[in-house]
Specification:
- Three copies of one chain form a homotrimer.
- By secondary structure, chain A is of the alpha+beta class.
- In chain A, 38% of the residues lie in helices and 42% in strands.
- Chain A has five helices and seven strands, in the order ααββααβββββα.
- In chain A, strands 1, 2, 3, 4, 5, 6 and 7 form a seven-stranded mixed beta sheet that branches.
- In chain A, a hairpin with a 2-residue loop joins strand 5 (92-105) and strand 6 (108-124).
- In chain A, helix 1 (3-30) runs antiparallel to helix 2.
- The first copy, chain A, is globular and about 60 Å long.
- Chain A starts with a helix and ends with a helix.
- Chains in contact: A-B, A-C, B-C.
- At the A-B interface, helix 1, helix 2, helix 4, strand 3 and strand 6 of A face helix 1, strand 5, strand 6 and helix 5 of B.
Chain lengths: 155, 155, 155
Amino acid sequence: MNDEVELRLKRLEDRIEIEDLIARYGPVVDSGEGTALADMWARDGRYRVGAEHDLVGAEVAALTEIPGHQAYLTRGCGHFLSAPTIRIDGERAQAVNHSMLVLRDGERFVVERLSANHWEFVRTDAGWRVEVRRNELLTGDEVARSLLGEAALGW
Amino acid sequence: MNDEVELRLKRLEDRIEIEDLIARYGPVVDSGEGTALADMWARDGRYRVGAEHDLVGAEVAALTEIPGHQAYLTRGCGHFLSAPTIRIDGERAQAVNHSMLVLRDGERFVVERLSANHWEFVRTDAGWRVEVRRNELLTGDEVARSLLGEAALGW
Amino acid sequence: MNDEVELRLKRLEDRIEIEDLIARYGPVVDSGEGTALADMWARDGRYRVGAEHDLVGAEVAALTEIPGHQAYLTRGCGHFLSAPTIRIDGERAQAVNHSMLVLRDGERFVVERLSANHWEFVRTDAGWRVEVRRNELLTGDEVARSLLGEAALGW
């Protein structure tokens, strides 16, 4: 196969794989599957949620066991993510998107959390994995806005 | 053309086509176009919405004529879907995502429904079509969570 | 490279580039980066928001300076867009999707706006850019629904 064709196919396949990885987060976390959740991250990957959580490696899998998360699951919840903007550089990649945590509230649903997300990915032997995900509530302060700004500035 | 190139191009094209098909659902149903809606499904395709609806074939087109749906349209509504995770196996495919029905409520909008979706697709002579879509409200019970779990478990 | 391979790769790359452009809108506008915002549009591109705004060229960059937008940013906001359906025809393209403006409201968040979007793109020397974006609130009247209907009717 022509080298240029291989390169362009690979770039497209990388993009699709990373899109799909991000798209799995909501279904995985809302079904409470901790093992599948951990498998999205690299072995020593990290998930920082504001000042609340800073999970590394096996702690990511344990996220679904946190009492707060279990309470969301039994009440009815959806982690709803927007389509990401993605930048791939060889064996590493970044993405930025929004997410909402939507909870059942009687007969309706409410938006409990609205966050900015910055993702860093690494290509492993098993495919693309999350190396660091940072999630910050959009409360109007600079922290969350600067996460989004990384995409704004064209990386 | 090289067989491997053909295979990889086709896989990417299949993915994009299925993404686009899912992305059409919201615009189609919110504009009330029943014919376009039915055209998204295979001829004998099925759309199961919890215990409320189990539509087959031409009944899918009639969904937009249901009085409840007409009331949504005149009130102001959006069927808002998240980017799906997709798995393609030859002539069939599956996808999982979240959806929200957002309704106008005076000067603002409210989340009336939050659902899990599991989609099955079939490749037809006219392109990919929905064979079965299941939609379950995320009320905290096991049914909706198990739909999402199909993606969690890596299929 | 085989002509057909080039054509199919280009079509896939165009699609991905337009998806990414749309996905940048939320992060860019929520981080308040007017220059990055203007760079998403063609030089004389246009952004029509209902009867409220009809911005052309440099006015698009100034959108982030509007007092109403600044108030959203300091309060905490997210412009949350759904994955688009896209149609590409040579040097031009169209897309349709939904968007929500979600605002902080004390400890929670509310959906302040729910809109239909119709996008027109043009291929420039610097890549794909927005030529016209129309955004209409989904209040139940025909205007917003007809924007969505453009995708419903298969273009």
